[in-house]
Amino acid sequence: MLASRPVADGQREARLSVPAIHCGACLRTVESALAGVDGVLHARANLTGRNVTVRWRDGSLPPAIVETLAAAGYPPHLADSARDGPDPVQSELVRALSVAGFASGNIMLLSVSVWSGTDAAMRDVFHALSALIALPALAYSGRVFYRSAWQALRRGRTNMDVPISIGVALAFALSVYDTIEGGPHAYFDAAVMLLLFLLVGRTLDHAMRARAHAAVEGLARLSPRGVVVEREDGTTAYLPVGEIVPGMTVIVAAGDRLPVDGRVLSGVSQLDRSLVTGENLPVPVSAGAVVEAGTLNLSAPLRVEASVAAGDSFLAEIVRLMAAAEGGRSAYRRIADRAAALYAPFVHATAILALVAWFSVTGDLHLAITIAVAVLIITCPCALGLAVPIVQVIATRRLFDRGVMVKDGAALERLAGVDVVVFDKTGTLTLGVPRLRDRDHADAKALALAATLAAYSRHPHARALAAAHAARDGRLDPAVADVREYPGDGLEARRNADVVRLGRAAWALARQPRDPAGPAEAGTVLAVNGRLVAAFVFDEALRAGARDAIAAFRGEGLDVEILSGDHEPAVAGLAGTLGVVRFRAAMRPEGKLARLNSLAAAGHKALMIGDGLNDTPAFAAAHVSMAPSSAVDVGRNAADFVFLRESLDAGPLALATARRAGQLIRQNLAIAVLYNGVALPFAIAGLVTPLVAALAMSGSSLIVVANALRLDWRPRRKRPLRAAAWRAEAGEGLAR
Amino acid sequence: MSVLAYLIPLSIVLGIVGLAAFLWCLKNGQYEDLDGAAERVLFDEDGPAGP
Q1: Cβ atoms within 10 Å, residue A338
Q2: Which residues of B touch A (CB under 8 A)?
Q3: Is the Cβ of A46 closer than 8 Å to some Cβ of chain B?
Q4: A308-311 contacts at long range (C-beta below 8 A, 24 or more positions apart)
Q5: Is the confidence metric ipTM above 0.85 for this complex?
């Protein structure tokens, strides 16, 4: 279980995820507990990452790290060794950024003295010094861009990095030539500053994505990835899910999720399959039943024989469906790439035209190249490189603060364009938890009796009864004894001389003659000695904000649709409550996928909001997808947006932010183009000195960043969210 | 102006020292647990020694 790696001198190191770390005192407790373990050389807990890095002497056996941590109250989770260690891209970008910052600061210092008028000898010395600083900085910090430009060129394409690389390389070469020749102008400062600004954009962009990914992974780690396996000799072992092979006997405690597909060997229980099929009511299972990974065991422990390895289970089937659906998504091209596709050829053509024109008019090659370089530098997408990421970083940050995590900037762009919202029902529009209907009118005595029995069960209906009773007075009936659960039927108990049953009508009222066309079995009845005392009807608790969210989406002109795996009546009832006209019930995962595909084929851009395994393939086919943090791991990892708070308000909030961000991105691109339109004639006319280039570049970048910052304040002041406005209107309506 | 002959190299060397210090901190993991570092300053006794 300890995935460790060797470090120097016969020591090994491992990093364990410890979600229970949450304060400074935890750090000390964990570290001193581990320091006391024999063989441990060093332990360092990390509060930000909620993990602990342990180093120990490589001996015959690893020290009792896991046991010690568990005993200290900080149970470690099976670490996903592949994801450990620092993010290499992030550290490369930060290193490149710091080198570029150092170089541009020092070169700028020298350049300012040149601009303020040094004599020729001093100027040449300063230029030479600048060249010495610029060469390593450009070589080191620019690698990110050269690599990407080279890859694009090799495939015969062009991207934003091609003009950047050419511009930087040409500017440097020309400036070196001018320095040797003692010319008045050198563009070292412009070249390094260009890289600095672009690296700021890249680093912010990457950091934002890395943070969202880490947060989502953190959620996954909260659920243990281990399984209790029964060996042939009767002993048990705790193994990672990945090590389960067909034929193993897995013990699934009540309240655990099934790790693999399999067949029940022994035990009688009920399974909550809502994450798999979207169906809300538990299914009774007993020996011989075939069960799917991802279902939740409700009432009693089960021994399950794994029929396939974890990698081949139902979950993996879903992942395959997703991979097949992924194709449509990759057709989307980011705004920045589309802009670059138009922009790069234009820049190249202009620079070459300027070169040819000046050379043919004046016959001075050096002058012509200088002007071509000035054109490349001034048009280089400095503002363009910041225009898109800076807005997305600020939008992401704003959503993050409100509990919505965005996986990457492209998702924001896609969300801004949606015209259909597709909801899953169970777990998304509803909390997936039944609620007692007419709670306030139920007979208090009957409810107290029912709740006393219900307290012994994990069945959703039982929990709803217990919750309803707890909300009123919560006192249980002390005379109830001998409570037994019959999976699939209900609960039975003794109360003095009476037999009390709570459960399926046909079972609880068994002493009455059976009426085949009897009452619908949707409800649960309470019976004493077979006589009906009370019948309870349940509906599903709506997720907070579901109504507001649907109204807000409608207000934005979007169509709303429900696709559910649940039965027709349940879906129709909910759709009626929410006023949604278009809904489909009893959908399989393939059905949802097909519906999303047909929407896409009809030219619609759909936002899919769902939480179950059965929604996950549809995520891949949807234009953009969103999941609550309670969703299954696969769904959460596949979704573009994950919202952490319970309320569905997150949907309209994300949409409003994405639309606002899209607006600002277009403004920023317009500003960048406008700036180029103004600056380009000067560059072609040969009027752009290094001083002008530096001013123009920083000026345009500052304007773009300032414009992006408007995202933070304007909606709050002038444009309240539509959901809030709708709520205010509804409130007024009620008041009248 | 001769003062520049050693002041400029000096300033650049100082800048490089600063850059090297930053890169060393980065490599050393000083920025990996910013929340934890804020808490550790409040510990009374010395914790387990660092690497």
Answers
A1: 12
A2: 1, 4, 8, 11-12, 15-16, 18-19, 22-23, 26, 29, 32-36, 38-40, 42-43, 47-51
A3: yes
A4: A308/A246, A308/A260, A308/A261, A308/A262, A309/A244, A309/A245, A309/A246, A309/A260, A310/A241, A310/A242, A310/A244, A310/A259, A310/A260, A311/A242
A5: no
Cβ atoms A280, A258 nearer than 8 A: no
Q: Which of A23, A35, A98 sits opposite B22 (nearest CB)?
A: A98
A424 as an active site residue: the answer is: yes
Highest mean pLDDT among A329-333, A660-664, B34-38: A660-664
Interface touch A49/B18, C-beta < 8 Å? no
Segments making up each domain of chain A, as ranges: 5-85, 226-320, 401-431+542-655, 438-536
Catalytic residue, from A124, A178, A272, A424: name it: A424
Find the residue in B nearest to A126 (Cα). B8
**What distance in Å separates residue B19's CA from the closest CA in chain A?**
7
Question: What is the third-level CATH fold of A5-85?
Answer: Alpha-Beta Plaits (3.30.70)
What does the DSSP assignment read for A480-541?
EEEEEEETTTEEEEEETTEEEEEE-HHHHTTTSPP-TT-S-TTSEEEEETTEEEEEE-EEEE
User: Per the CB < 8 Å rule, is A27 touching B36?
Assistant: yes
Q: Among A46, A55, A110, whose Cβ lies nearest the Cβ of B33?
A: A46
Judged against a pLDDT cut of 80, whether residue B14 lies above it is answered with yes
Chain B CB contacts of A110 under 8 Å are 8
Tell whether A286 lies on the interface with B, counting CB pairs under 8 A: no
Q: Name the more confident of A589 and B23.
A: B23
The distance of B40 to chain A (nearest Cα, Å) reads 6
The C-alpha R_g of chain B, in whole angstroms, comes to 18
Q: Do domains A226-320 and A401-431+542-655 have the same CATH topology?
A: no
By mean pLDDT, which of A165-169, A380-384, A420-424, A703-707 is the weakest?
A: A380-384
The tens digit of pLDDT for each residue in A583-631 reads 888 777 788 888 888 888 888 888 999 887 778 788 878 888 898 877 7
CA distance A228 to A236: 6
Contact (CB<8Å) B26/A98: yes
A285-324 per-position pLDDT tens digit: 888 888 887 787 877 788 888 887 766 666 666 666 666 6
Residues facing residue A434 across a β-bridge: A540
| Domain made up of A438-536: CATH architecture | 3-Layer(aba) Sandwich (3.40)
Q: Which CATH number fits domain A401-431+542-655: 2.60.40.3080, 3.20.20.140, 3.40.50.1000, 3.40.50.10420?
A: 3.40.50.1000
Are B50 and A99 inside 8 Å of each other by CB?
no
Contact call for A24 and B12, based on CB within 8 A: no
CA dist., res. A123 & res. A117, Å (int): 8
First to last CA, chain A: 64
Q: What's the pLDDT score for residue A515?
A: 47
Question: Which one of B19, B31, B42 makes the best mutation probe of the A interface by having the most chain A beta carbons within 10 Å?
Answer: B19
Of A42, A98, A99, the CB nearest to B48: A42
Q: Which CATH class is domain A226-320?
A: mainly beta
- List pLDDT tens digits, range A182-224: 888 888 988 898 888 888 888 887 877 777 666 666 555 545 4
What is the three-state SS of A565-602?
Answer: CCCHHHHHHHHHHHCCCEEECCCCHHHHHHHHHHHHHC
Q: In one letter, which amino acid is A18?
A: V
pLDDT band at residue B17, thresholds of 50, 70 and 90? very high
